[in-house]
Amino acid sequence: MTHPERHSDDALQREIEALLLVDHSPEFRARVRTSLVAVPAPAPWRFGWLLLPAGVALCAAMLALLWPGREPVPPEAPVTVRAADGPAPLESPAIPVPAPAAIEPEHVSVSVRAAPPRSGPPPFPEVVISAEETRALRLLLTSVPRGRMPEMPETEPARADQLLTLDDVKVATLVIEPLALMAQLEGERR
Amino acid sequence: MHERAAILPGDSRLARRNPPFGTRALVTEDTALSREFEALLVECSTLAFRVAYGVLRHREDAEDVAQDAFAKAYCRFHQLRDRERFRAWLVRTTWRTAIDRYRANRRRFERELPLPIDSPGSDSAEALERAERLWQAIEALPEKLRVTLVLAAILGHNISEVAALLEVPEGTVKSRLFLARQQLKERLS
Asked: Best mutation site among A24, A31, A51 for testing chain B: the one with the most B CBs within 10 Å?
């Protein structure tokens, strides 16, 4: 910076200082004190800002507890796949899994309860289970928890003499309509 | 003597029956805090007033703004952990409040009257014209350059003090002052 520029900067600075060389009135501080009397006293506790996140967390917890329409969902039992004679089922060791309730064969029963009477027509036709199907279903339910296939009653294989021979097969006689009728029809057309 | 009197927040009953203007000395629960603020009021009142005057060029408006700034500072005084930064805090608050007041005045007086500006004393016409041109050039400066220039021109602040008040590096203050003076000279020439 050259000397004239320096001199110019100093002169400019002095001019600005002269512009701002203004003092407040003697009553100014007294006015400030008077106004501060009306101001509420500052709280000496300096950790008031901690109340804000705590209040927000409390409100969130209360909202979560009191939120309507949310019912607790019962924990679902894990689905385990057990081979017939294979190894133990794979289960996550970290998640405790309640033991499946043992189903005693003698206590298993399939009961069809009558639906409560409805005013309108039923949406689906009524399912009718025959006695054989009921027995098979009962057998299936008792066998699955033990990991075994249900033991079906064995049937004896058919003997050779019980099979039908070719002579026993009766074929109905094939009847062919006579062609005269067709020819007669054609003649009439001519 | 009254300048060392304690600030008395919160006890309006005693304040009402207290007589002389500006000499109220009440005992509050937080007297130490009030005394500390009182000391800062005495120390910084001229600073706040001149900062406001540098924006508004009007003594009464500047006093109102400085008073508002002290009230704001008092309300939040307990939150200020580092009391060494009170001056910078007060300068920022005063500057923002003064800018708001200036803009409100400009909007209001654009429709009615010219802005209220203090007229200098018995200077010559040439000096008055020069001062008016300088004020206009200062007002035309960008805000960052303007506040730096004003702070450097009041109370004999040096570069490091201005840097502390603005909480910027000293190099930033130097460059801002250089740019501000350059723009002023261009406008005044």
From this structure: A24
